[in-house]
């Protein structure tokens, strides 16, 4: 069963000024799907709309056979979609463990069990569990943000530029963690500025331009395409 289907999605921040202009998008089980495109193309807006932070004015968003377009963010989270925003994604003055607790707020009864699973998946979070989030390195902080998202045991994880501001080594480590998430059964939609590297770890890529689909296909094919490299990947 397809994890997520987005059809003819129209959405924006103010009435009459649509940013997404009829977008189509899908994620299959155990896929990493990469979303790239020029600045302002609407990549983050797409993730925010799927996560319920923006209301679609037209189109359909279906998660595992359930229409979720227009639901509130915590209801969408309950359905099994976790969103990791680009900024302000951890609580700096709380410990790592308290941040995980915040991530699991919609299901407090299973909190301990989930936190154990997340800390087993990311051992660095167990080692740093008592440390304030603001004292983590950039890469560790991003792992914590992903760990918080995993607290709801999501079927789909939406990641908005998770490697922004990270060193090349830390970005590479994070990409390896994203692959591990796919390997444990998560479907992932990933927006990245770091397009080539993100495409290299992804199964399929969507290139958006001005709120519309431009090209999509298997990442390996798009990476090998000279025109796409020239037009979108700075090659
Ligand atoms: N909170 C907001 N209020 C109004 N307009 C916004 C808001 N956030 C984004 N926009 C506008 O929506 C358009 C798409 O922005 P979005 O952040 O989705 O693009 P993006 O493809 O993720 O870009 P980038 O690669 O630069 O991060 C832009 O024109 C932007 O100015």
TrEMBL record:
PROSITE patterns tied to this protein: ABC_TRANSPORTER_1 (PS00211), ABC_TRANSPORTER_2 (PS50893)
A single MF term (Gene Ontology): branched-chain amino acid transmembrane transporter activity
Keywords: Amino-acid transport, ATP-binding, Nucleotide-binding, Transport
GO BP field: L-amino acid transport
InterPro entries for this protein: AAA+_ATPase, ABC_transporter-like_ATP-bd, ABC_transporter-like_CS, BCAA_Transport_ATP-bd_LivF, P-loop_NTPase
Domain named ABC transporter: residues: 4-235
Top-rank lineage group of the source organism: Bacteria
Entry's family note: Belongs to the ABC transporter superfamily.
Protein name per Swiss-Prot or TrEMBL: ABC transporter ATP-binding protein
Species name: Ectorhizobium quercum
Lineage of origin: Bacteria, Pseudomonadati, Pseudomonadota, Alphaproteobacteria, Hyphomicrobiales
